Each structure stands twice: as C-alpha cells, then as structure tokens.
Amino acid sequence: MVVRNNNNKNKNNNKSSHGAAPGNTEEGYIKISLVNQSVFIRKKKSCPLRDISLAEIDYKNLKLLNKFLSERGKIIPSRITNVEVKKQRALANAIKRARQLALISPIKKELTQPN
After folding, report:
1. Does the predicted model carry a pTM greater than 0.70?
2. Could you read off the pLDDT of 85-103 as tens digits, one per residue?
3. Half-sphere exposure (CA, 13 Å, Cβ side) for 59?
4. How many domains does the chain have?
5. Which helix (H) or strand (E) holds 3?
6. Is 66 within a domain?
7. Torsion of Cα atoms, 13 then 19 then 24 then 29, to 10°
8. What is the CATH number of the domain that holds 63?
9. DSSP annotation string for 27-94
C-alpha cells in the first residue's frame, strides 16, 4: 500500500529546476522514454481524387459517387478513403443532392440473382 504525503509534494513543487534530474517533468525538462527509440515515418497517402477537379464532383456523376458509399448507403469518411477536405465536402453535398433527386437510393441494396 502506497501512502503519499501532501506536505512532501508541496515542498517538491516549490523547489527550483536547477537541481532537478533530467527525467523530471519540472520546468524546462521533458520526460524521455528509453524504451522505443526507433523512428517510424509514415508515408503520406495521396488523395484518390487528385486528378479530378471540384467541378467534376457532381450529383450527375453517379459512378464516382457510388465509390464513396458503403453497402448501407452511408458516406465513407475521409480518414478511410484519404480524400482531401474540400473534395470530401463536395462529395458529401453531391451525394445528398443525388439522394434528394432520387438518383441514388438512400439505402443501397445489392440485388441478388435468382438461382
């Protein structure tokens, strides 16, 4: 069982950082972990719509819009598709407009072929 003494805590907080050890998190010092020192650089993924202009993202382009809809008809988020923010917003607006005009079903159902 660990018991902490509040008086010691207050005394330690009043000390200056001159005599502090490098591992302490007092003024000017950062706690450093010595365990995982390897550097991991993540390659930045590019936008799949980089060749398509914003004008081409339209409610009439159903082939493009269906690529960004899930099986249930939901818009797939940009963290999964890696689409830029402006283009994701344009896609969402185009999908919503196409739903309003009944060009896209609100609930996307795949038709099964009879056996």
Report:
1. no
2. 999 999 999 999 999 999 9
3. 13
4. 1
5. none
6. yes
7. 100
8. 4.10.640.10
9. TT-----SS------PPPPPPTTTTS-GGG--TT-HHHHHHTB-TTSPBPPHHHH---HHHHHHHHHH
